[in-house]
Amino acid sequence: MLNTGPACVQRGKSVTNWKALSTLCCIGLPLLSAAALADEVRFDGQNMMQGELKRLDRGKLYFKTPGTNTISIEWNHVDEVSSSKSLEIELDNGDILYGFIEPTDSHGQASIRHDHGTDLVEMSSVVALTEIEDDIRERFDGTASAGMNLTKSNNYENYSLGLDLSYTTRKYVSNLDLSSHINSSDETPKSEQSSLKIRSSRIWKKRRYTGGLLNFERNEELGIDLRSSVGISVGKSLTHTNSRIFHIDGGLLLTRENIAGSGDSESSREAFLGARYEWFRYDDPQLDLTTQLVVIPSLTESGRVRGKFNLTLRWEMIDDLYWRLTYQQDNDSDPPGDGSAKSDYTLFSGIAYDF
């Protein structure tokens, strides 16, 4: 006897639901695959790839395809690019647009659709593409570095560690810079140089920014157990192209110094003026040169001026892995404490990894 009751009806509904689900999967999976391949780049006149645009940074376009990990293409080789992602697009004249890069028939040009319309710009004028990430984890970028030098004759040891971390949103950029250098040998006592710098900046039009900063430093050679500074800053990027970056900044600091070898501390007000220049190229050998100078006159102690100079050369050995050479010098015209040196420098090499 056939069963035509509720159980049979339920099985019929299950079959129908399963067919509907299968149909949705058959339709949805190709659509998801198409979405994953929605970005496109054409380069060197004849090559084309579909996949996912990651970013344009420092003259390189980072792109991922289903068959490769993320690869980099030198921007001056790119003819056309389009993306379905919402992007922050920076031009070499300082303009920042938020929108989409769409396909165009104009060779060597990019069509940018934003809230106020559509602009057609030269590819060479685009210097940065950054996805406006919804996932907080994707907003972080950083570099980790480490180095070690050993000499048997006098038991010389030198260790260095560093971490640079940045967090970017549509209007703000925050940076954390941590470094530590430790030296010792039979002839000299152990000495340490360490610093932690935290800065958050509000980005305005034409590459201007304002922000706040918090610094902690330790330099036993200059007589400092701990120097703590809090301040405000203003700055501007004067140049940003696909081969170099140059910006200046300045501001005010409130500083407290704990003097090495004693329980004394001193507080002061300071100003600072800094400049940073970055140059990079991608012909062999691929090089990345950064130099930074900061001058810090005291507003409390007449005649006292501190200065910091940093020169870093990086050579990419394989993707995102660099050999790094850094020279760093600190000067103080009137260091606290008795017998403290007026200058100190460090030269170290090691490896660095971008993530």
Architecture overview:
Helices cover 9% and strands 63% of the residues. It has 355 residues and is mainly beta. It has 2 domains: 39-132, Roll (SH3 type barrels), CATH 2.30.30; 137-354, monomeric porin ompg (Porin). The strands form 2 sheets. It has a 12-stranded antiparallel β-barrel. Strands 1, 2, 3, 4, 5, 6, 7, 8, 9 and 10 form a 10-stranded antiparallel β-sheet that branches. It starts with 5 loop residues before the first helix and ends with a strand.
Summarize the structure.
The protein is mainly β and 355 residues long.
Which tags fit this structure?
355 residues, mainly beta, SH3 type barrels, Porin, 2 domains, twelve-stranded antiparallel beta barrel, ten-stranded antiparallel sheet, 22 strands, disordered N terminus
